[in-house]
Design brief:
About 40% of the residues lie in helices and about 20% in strands. It contains 16 helices and 21 strands. Strands 2-1-9-8-7 form a five-stranded antiparallel β-sheet, with helices on both faces. Helix 12 links the parallel strand 15 (about 395-400) and strand 16 (about 420-425).
Length: about 575
């Protein structure tokens, strides 16, 4: 009996010891797992910080700096403040940016920002109407003078009057409606602190001007009727001396005493920038001076667009380095022919960041009015024009002239040169005729095949490549807001088919996207793969909102199915 009791006691002691050992081991392992998880989170946090640092770090280039230095040297001691900001690369030129001026009518931009954002947040209706009373009337009120006393005037109308006519009555009526304290509290969040919004008090700087324009530009990224109203109102020639030649700026001028200012947005699709020029020229040729500065800045900026691909080196956790560097120059697209097809091709090519050259022998089809953003337009005989082209392995040629003879001249001029791609647009008969003539003139089959086979994709429908092409084309409509889509993005335990990441300044307005493509399966299978392989965890740090997109093609029914789900962190 004692032996049995002894055995039982030994068993109990062993069990108890095992229990405490297991508990101890579990606790230790749990602690280890927590530490590992925390270390992983810290690593991800550091990666995010480095990413944001890289994306927000101002672009630097000594060539551009040196050229802009000439402007600084000229105007730094002349009572002029200049602030230029490249929105693609955060490159900035600053001259006397903290020098204090009267804001004059440039202060009206603050009111526009406040009203637009409050409307976006559903905090007010821009069609709300205010009663125009005799006590409201002020000098410099062309817009409000169109109304009789005690007329009801909408907030949107007064916004237009402020921007088009610089209407003072509308401005002060809106200030009264908003409340100065509310206006100050709002802009304090954006570090746009002004002691007063009275345009006749000296408390305005070029730094404040650019910050206000930057805020307005971000609000412009939501396209609605009021964005269109404000853009149209700012696109006026009323004392707009930022404009020169055919370059047009969305602007707001300010004019009081000896102060003349013009601040604006160069709203170019590919290369937008902000500019503020504050002066004390008064009536002393202020229009000429502002235009002169605006043009000089644009010319330097435009001449150096090829330099604006940021070269960066940054560390990740001090363990490895990432270098981003532009090695090759921009590809060059030469369009032979200036007809309607060429016009559409030119537009797409500019969106894809090609240097575009257009050739035609007719003045009505080869001119800068028809192709305003082309890098070069040549109006000569095709064989003469093509002699002016620099041929290299980054040159693309598309032949789309008005007739067989011109096509043939272009093809023969290009065929023996160095190029990346040579294509023709035309009917089967037209292409066949061109090929026949080339054969008759002794060109080899290998040379001829280059025209339409070497660099063109096999035509396919309803497969993953086709779906990918559609997604790539879709990006063109949103390239202003997103980085270039990443194919086969390494994420979680695999590779996501497509990832779209919004640029940092648009993360509050546009979601990141993780896309998975399937063939003869289901959208559920696509979405399950995204979640099971933990793709979102690698993307979620780049944007506030993340959408998961599954797309499937059914070969039998010839139908596509798509499902989009919001990822809950």
């Amino acid at each position: 009996m004692k032996k049995i009791i002894r055995i039982i006691l030994i068993i109990l002691i062993c069990l108890a010891g095992g229990f405490f050992f297991i508990k101890y081991k579990f606790n230790n392992e749990n602690t280890f797992m927590e530490q590992t998880l925390n270390a992983f989170k810290d690593e991800e946090r550091l990666k995010k910080q480095k990413y944001l640092q890289c994306m927000n770090e101002p672009f630097k280039d000594t060539v551009v700096d040196e050229k802009f230095a000439d402007i600084s040297n000229i105007y730094a001691k002349s009572g002029v403040a200049i602030y230029f900001k490249d929105l693609n690369n955060n490159y900035e030129l600053k001259v006397n940016e903290n020098k204090i001026y009267y804001s004059a009518s440039t202060s009206k931009v603050f009111v526009v920002i406040y009203l637009l954002e409050k409307y976006r947040n559903n905090e007010l209706d821009l069609e709300t109407k205010l009663v125009y009373k005799p006590s409201d009337a002020m000098q410099g009120s062309i817009g409000m003078k169109q109304h009789k006393y005690y007329d009801e005037v909408s907030l949107s109308e007064m916004i237009k009057y402020m921007l088009v006519y610089s209407d003072n009555t509308a401005y002060f009526m809106l200030i009264k409606y908003i409340g100065l304290d509310n206006l100050k509290m709002y802009f304090e969040e954006y570090i746009l602190v002004m002691e007063s919004y009275d345009p006749f008090i000296r408390n305005y700087t070029a730094d404040l001007a650019i910050k206000s324009l930057d805020r307005l530009y971000k609000l412009f990224q939501v396209d609605d009727d009021y964005t269109k109203l404000i853009k149209e109102s700012m696109n006026n020639r009323n004392m707009n001396y930022l404009n020169f030649d055919e370059k047009v700026f969305l602007h707001k001028y300010g004019y009081y005493d000896v102060s003349y200012h013009d601040i604006g947005i160069y709203d170019d699709t590919n290369y937008p920038y902000l500019i503020a020029i504050l002066t004390l020229y008064g009536n002393n040729n202020y229009d000429v001076k502002v235009k002169e500065i605006s043009k000089k800045i644009f010319e330097i900026y435009n001449e150096n667009l090829d330099l604006k691909e940021t070269n960066k080196v940054f560390d990740i956790n001090n363990s490895y380095k990432i270098m981003l560097e532009q090695i090759a120059s921009k590809p060059k697209l030469v369009i032979c022919g200036g007809g309607h097809i060429s016009l559409e091709l030119y537009k797409v090519a500019k969106m894809l960041d090609f240097n575009v050259i257009v050739i035609d022998d007719r003045e009505e089809f080869a001119n800068t009015e028809r192709f305003p953003s082309a890098d070069k337009v040549i109006c000569k005989k095709f064989n003469e024009a093509l002699e002016e082209i620099n041929y290299d392995n980054n040159s693309y040629f598309v032949v789309v002239t008005r007739g067989h003879r011109a096509d043939q001249i272009c093809i023969e001029s290009i065929l023996n040169k160095e190029y990346k791609y040579l294509g023709m647009i035309g009917s089967k008969a037209k292409v066949a005729n061109s090929v026949r003539q080339l054969v008759e003139k002794g060109y080899s089959s290998k040379e001829i095949e280059k025209i339409h086979r070497e660099y063109t994709s096999v035509i396919q429908y309803n497969n993953e490549n086709s779906l990918s092409s559609v997604l790539s084309i879709a990006y063109l409509s949103s390239m202003q807001y997103y980085f270039k889509p990443i194919r086969e993005f390494p994420a979680g335990r695999g590779f996501a088919d497509f990832v779209f990441i919004p640029k940092p300044e648009f993360q509050n307005y546009y979601p990141a996207l993780v896309v998975e493509l399937k063939w003869d399966k289901s959208v559920r299978a696509a979405l399950d793969q995204i979640r099971d392989r933990k793709y979102p965890e690698s993307v979620a740090c780049y944007a506030g909102e993340l959408l998961l997109v599954g797309i499937n093609y059914n070969e039998k029914t010839k139908e596509h199915e798509c499902r989009i789900e919001k990822y809950e962190k």
